[in-house]
Design brief:
six-stranded parallel beta sheet, 2 domains, elongated, Rossmann fold, alpha/beta, five-stranded parallel beta sheet, 338 residues
Length: 338
Amino acid sequence: MKKMKIAWIGHLYFPLDYFPPYFDFFHIPYSDPGVYNWNELVERVGFTPDIVVLADYSTPPPLVNLEEFPCLTVFYAIDTHIHSWYPFYAQGFDLCFISLKDQFAEFLNKRLSNEQVFWFPPCASLRSIPLDPDPLLPKYRAIFVGNLNPELKPRRVDFFNALKEQCPELHLQEQGSFPDLYANSDLVLNFCDHDELNFRVFEVLGCKKPLLTPLIKHGLTELFEPEKDFFGYDPGNIEETAQKIKFLLENPELCKLVAESGYNKVNESHRPQHRVKFLSEQIEKIVFNGVADSLIQKRLSSKEFIHNAYLKMLYLLLAEKSSDFIRQKAYLKAGKKY
């Protein structure tokens, strides 16, 4: 089978060797500061891509004039709860894989159709595996591991400060290896700053630990069953949350059963290999059925409309906002394309 040459820009959420062998990747990491149009991208990777994938890494867009790319283009969008410009930028792509299910409408009520947008929830990372407790590390009853900078995460910090007053058993940890910290903890808490379905849900369950997480939307209860695979709480009710932590710490057998069930669900459906399989199958289906060519032609025939309706103002605003001269120049040039 002919190899598909793929330029993957951004974060590597999955090992590339998990993909079919005829997917031939060139990776531009998220640390790369470049902004590329088509010719610049081809020069950067050293070949003409059959597919360009932009994997979200929560920075200003590294691709411009993507509405005129002559190959299949794919956007893996995760931080849609943070960046309001994502649904507009997405209109320049052929396919979008979106992490947060309840934000579909924002992507669909423009140019993209239902057949071009897919729900692509987070998954457990390769590090999310059960470990034996380390006797050399501290033991914790309940733990939260994550950023606790009050300037960046004010809602989170306020919540945990208030909760800790009623629940002194709770340990808050900003840094460290989460699999090791979870292994030495009886209960792991999650917090969703924007009521999003985040990776921590899958990481905790993948480590086979009992999870206490906010009862949010975005498909959480479609993937996992409350009180069977995880425990839920209302972040608006500190007292009730503290009481639930106390109850769970007093019932280790219940926690063990729920952790086991959540772990089994992750192993069945929410490891990197499952996401790679879904992503690969959708791309293969579209490419091998000839749909990719029609999507590309449809986009190219509407490139001026796409630019003017969805991308022009975005590029101009980014140019005005950017303090990086190279990015500023690239966005300004892209904004004045037509």
